[in-house]
Design goal:
The protein starts with 6 loop residues before the first strand and ends in a 6-residue tail after the last helix. It has five helices and five strands; from the N terminus they run βαβαβαβαβα. By secondary structure, the chain is α/β, with parallel strands linked by helices.
Length: 145
């Protein structure tokens, strides 16, 4: 299956430089994407609660979220998404500076679909994002396809 419609991505990131890096990496991908960015966990919850129906940017196909977020951290957001009957099928991929095994285990036990370290090297980070987007748009069949 090749995705003919854009992959809808909710990016939850509070660090402006990481938002720019992630956006540039996503936009550099050959796959079509639509990105919506929120800067804290509360805004992500509000966005997801309001986007379960159909509208301009309907529910995301994937969520990329930082672990350390203001107001509501990424782990709590992950758990709340996975508890929500209307959202629990949305893949949540953690983007983090933490490579602590404990953080990684907690995320996977809470049903994260991936755990990606934010490399300080822009080329390496872009490559990780490109592989992630390619996987979720070309390799995997998502309900939106």
């Amino acid at each position: 299956f090749h995705r003919s419609i854009p992959l809808k991505i909710l990016l939850v990131e509070h660090d402006p430089s990481d938002v720019i890096r992630a956006r540039k990496a996503i936009e550099a991908c050959k796959q079509k994407t639509e990105i919506y960015v929120v800067h804290d966990g509360i805004k992500a919850k509000q966005f997801l609660r309001n986007k379960k129906g159909t509208n301009k940017f309907s529910r995301p196909d994937i969520i990329l979220t930082a672990l350390k977020l203001p107001k509501l951290d990424g782990m709590t957001l992950l758990k709340e998404v996975k508890r929500d009957k209307d959202l629990k099928d949305v893949p949540v991929i953690i983007l983090t500076n933490s490579i602590e095994v404990g953080d990684m285990l907690r995320c996977y036990k809470a049903h994260a679909s991936g755990f990606i370290g934010k490399s300080v090297d822009d080329g390496e980070f872009r490559e990780k994002i490109e592989m992630t987007i390619a996987y979720w748009s070309d390799s995997v069949v998502l309900p939106s396809m």
